[in-house]
Amino acid sequence: xxxxxxxxxxxxxxxxxxxxxxxxxxxxxxxxxxxxxxxxxxxxxxxxxxxxxxxxxxxxxxxxxxxxxxxxxxxxxxxxxxxxxxxxxxxxxxxxxxxxxxxxxxxxxxxxxxxxxxx
Length: 119
What we know:
0% helix, 7-stranded mixed sheet
C-alpha cells in the first residue's frame, strides 16, 4: 500500500506560480514511478509529469518549459513546480504512484487538489 497526501493547490492569476507537494507513506525508491495527473472539467484524467525511480522525467507537451517535477528523497515527497500558469491549467491535480508486485502493476492516487487559474 502507498498513501499519498497532496497539498499546495489554490487560486492564482494567469502568469503566476504554484507548487504542489505529494508526500508518500513509503520510500520513493520503493516506487517505480511517481507523477502528477490532472482532470479538467469535461475531460479525462491526463498525465502532466512523471519521474521514474532512476530519475528520468516525462512531461506533457502542454506543460513543457513551464512545469518541473522534482523529489526530495529524504522526505519521500514529490513536487510539481508550476510557472507561467494559464487558465487552461485549471483542473484537479492528482498525485500518482505506480508500484509492482511480481508481474502486477499497482496504481495509487491521492485525493486531488484543485488548481484554479484566473485570466
